[in-house]
Design a protein that fits this description.
Elements: H1 3-6, E1 10-12, E2 18-27, E3 34-40, H2 45-50, H3 62-73, E4 76-79, E5 83-87, E6 90-93
Parallel strand pairs: 1-6
Antiparallel strand pairs: 1-2, 2-3, 3-4, 5-6
């Protein structure tokens, strides 16, 4: 599976409850293996991740912080060890 296919996949927990969508994929620097997924839901989740607000890399300008604040609260990092399986379009957590 390609990373481009993984991005925007729906993420569900073991009971089938929706957690969000894959917004970003984190790779190990040394061997480029997947170490985790950034999962979020909501209108501005992609922007919050792309602009660096989701992981604290960005500060300001204040209108962007305010705009993405709600989305940032709903974004989480999921270590790859928690992934039970990933198929085209769906990631199931263990």
């Amino acid at each position: 599976m390609r990373i481009s296919e993984l991005l925007a996949s729906v993420v569900v927990d073991e009971s089938g409850r929706r957690v969000g969508r894959v917004r970003d994929v984190r790779l190990a620097k040394d061997d480029l293996r997947v170490v985790g997924l950034v999962v979020g839901d909501g209108f501005l989740a992609d922007a919050a991740v792309a602009w660096g607000f989701a992981d604290g890399r960005a500060r300001g300008p204040w209108p962007l912080e305010r705009l993405t604040a709600h989305a940032v609260q709903r974004i989480t990092f999921v270590p790859v060890e928690r992934v039970a399986r990933w198929d085209h379009g769906e990631v199931v957590l263990a």
